[in-house]
Amino acid sequence: MSIFQSTSGVSVNPDVQRTFQRLSEGKELRYIIFKIEDREVVVETAVTQDHLALTVDDHEDNSKEAFSLFVDDLRRRTDGFKDCRYAVFDFKFTCSRVGAGTSKMDKIVFLQICPDGASIKKKMVYASSASAIKASLGTEKILQFQINIICYLFNQLIVQASGVKIDASCKKAYDDLHNKHLHSYIIFRISDDDTTIIVDKIGEKGAPYSDFVEEIRKSVGNGKECRYAAVDVEVQVQRQGTDAASRLSKVIFVQYCPDEAPVRRRMLYASSVRALKATLGLESLMQVQASDLSDIDEKAIKHELMSHQRT
């Protein structure tokens, strides 16, 4: 078995790889916590599914109970998150996608945990030694997270492993806007339970751009929330070699996350946007990432669109 060593001189005990292989092959392990001890990454604990004694169906619960027990174990071993650790967790969840039904899935995730309460020296040692354990485990094929605030982790796992669902109404509304120009804008939001992107507001056909800006202002609640939007913007483009101007209607995509919004909300919207873009087919649109109403100023948006359309 290969011996892996980091640039910091920390090596990886061969038992790390052997134990991870047991988990990845589905042989009763649910999570493993690793620590650096005497300049070597070692297995601190390997917990079985039976040891957790869960009281609910793991997939239906989206691993909430199992993850809570994992966090409690991690808290004890790090003296209240005052030390760093690596870990792998077998995340079980139910995934529902539009048109594909519901299925039970498993995803192994690798965690590099360096809490704010840990010393700078510890953080540096774990950061510089991460490449060695990643090489040992072969983590290029599994999800990886570097975290310093443990309370944000579960939402990240839910979003990136299972994917926030896209409600069917989003696709229908977008197709009506993009293909038929039946709406002037659509504002999307993530549902209150953080599981689904839904339609928040639809602008009537012919409504001025200022209506969209006003609805965004109201929907984010004094900067405490985030939103996505698709907006049908009409511009006049001067074609080279002609005196005539052409009227064009172009749809843009807006990801609006105010700086004042809680970090958790910004993280949730940032990590969920890819699913929305893929489902609706937004990749070809002009993309606007905004944190203030000035970022979606009508004149600035139209100027940018016109510069893209000049031929």
Could you list the spans in which at least 5 consecutive residues all have pLDDT below 50?
none
CATH class of the largest domain: Alpha Beta
Report the average pLDDT across residues: 83
Strand content of the residues, in percent?
A: 25-35%
List the total number of helices. 9
* CATH architecture group name of the largest domain: 3-Layer(aba) Sandwich
Strand order of the largest sheet: 1-3-2-4-5-6
Break the fold down into its secondary structure elements and pairings:
Layout: E1 11-12, H1 14-24, E2 29-36, E3 40-48, H2 49-52, H3 64-77, E4 85-97, E5 101-113, H4 120-137, E6 143-147, H5 153-162, E7 165-166, H6 168-180, E8 183-190, E9 196-204, H7 209-219, E10 227-238, E11 245-256, H8 263-280, E12 286-290, H9 298-309
Parallel strand pairs: 1-3, 5-6, 7-9, 11-12
Antiparallel strand pairs: 2-3, 2-4, 4-5, 8-9, 8-10, 10-11
Helix pairs in contact: 5-8
